[in-house]
Amino acid sequence: MTKLIDQINDNLKNAKENSILQFNKEIAQIEDLIPLTLGEPDFNTPEHVKKAAVAAIENNESHYSNPRGIDALRKAVTQFLDNKYNLKYNPDTQVITTAGVTEGIYDVLATILNPGDNVIIPTPTFPLYQDDVILNGANSIFVDTEKDGFVLTADKLENVIKEHNGNVKAVIINTPGNPTGVAYTAEQLSALAEVIKKHNLFCISDEIYSELTYGRQHISIAKLAPDNTILLNGMSKSHAMTGWRIGFILGPKDLIDRINVVHQFAVTCVTDNAQFAALEGLTNGADDGLEMKKTYEIRRDILRAGLEKAGFHSPQPSGAFYIFAKIPEQFTQDDFEFSRQLAHEAKVGVIPGSSFGKGGEGYIRLSYAASNDNIKKAVERIQKFVQSH
């Protein structure tokens, strides 16, 4: 008799567990480890946001809400995006509140993809995109961006589309990016937008780190190609609310209508008190993330300078809270083995670059969402590790 496990969704058989979480779990029990692994703010959620959630509970905000999110929250996020990035969305028809951007990514891809469709994914990048493409029976076309400063250029996008005879449905952009911290410039996005519009592609733009940019203003491709762009954003990074699971999908009305169907199938609606907390964050804490950003920038400079001294070269992070560093040539093992050795011998936890796709081979990702003291200690340990090898 055939085992039940052998009869599950064929697409799921090809999907793998998140290698970032797996590797973090593998090294987490090492004694005295300084973890620079996961992409989570080390700040607590602002007090005024927590109090708003408590008040919502006490006010019995504990019922089903509009699947798209409570009205006030949808208005608040559209106002926030308008004030910050000059993006114009109708709160009644162009917004869905999701259980984090993770749900948003799945909802969007489940809506637009048919089996066999092709999706262009610049690499290195967050692995969840590929996983959701696989779950929906579609194909990922990976574009290595290492030699282009870790950005997808318009020329390369055009060439990849031609190589596949125009058989491409979507492209995924993440800016500022995980794992590199690189943010696209206005010129780069403008050139990409022209190609996207020319070929009438879906552009899924993950901008969860939009409030954490350094020395520049965040620019959204949704401003340049609004009819093609499905924008993803949320509260996790800007307001240190990873556990609250609040994300947003914004885009053209007709697309949002269909995405909302998948959203309702998946979660019905997002938790009430978390929505009221997010509302407080967007209205009375619109600049909460800017205070955190000042601290991140100091940490970034400490970590990057220390890594450079140890022989790890990296692109200057213009956003997020990661450094994506090239492993010195004296180390010949792959990045997973290097990261294991670093964890066991130097007691510093990092994520192997290959977790983010082929373009990440030979690199490590370090998160500077950690205390100044831990970053300084990690730098000292890494420098001693390199010197001893």
TrEMBL record:
This is Aminotransferase. GO terms for molecular function: pyridoxal phosphate binding; transaminase activity. Residues 32-382 form the Aminotransferase class I/classII large domain. Pfam families: Aminotran_1_2. Keywords: Aminotransferase, Pyridoxal phosphate, Transferase. PANTHER family: AMINOTRANSFERASE, ASPARTATE AMINOTRANSFERASE. GO terms for biological process: amino acid metabolic process. InterPro entries: Aminotransferase_I/II_large, AspAT/PAT-like, NHTrfase_class1_PyrdxlP-BS, PyrdxlP-dep_Trfase, PyrdxlP-dep_Trfase_major, PyrdxlP-dep_Trfase_small. Its EC number is 2.6.1.-. Belongs to the class-I pyridoxal-phosphate-dependent aminotransferase family. Its cofactor is pyridoxal 5'-phosphate. It is an enzyme of class 2 (transferase).
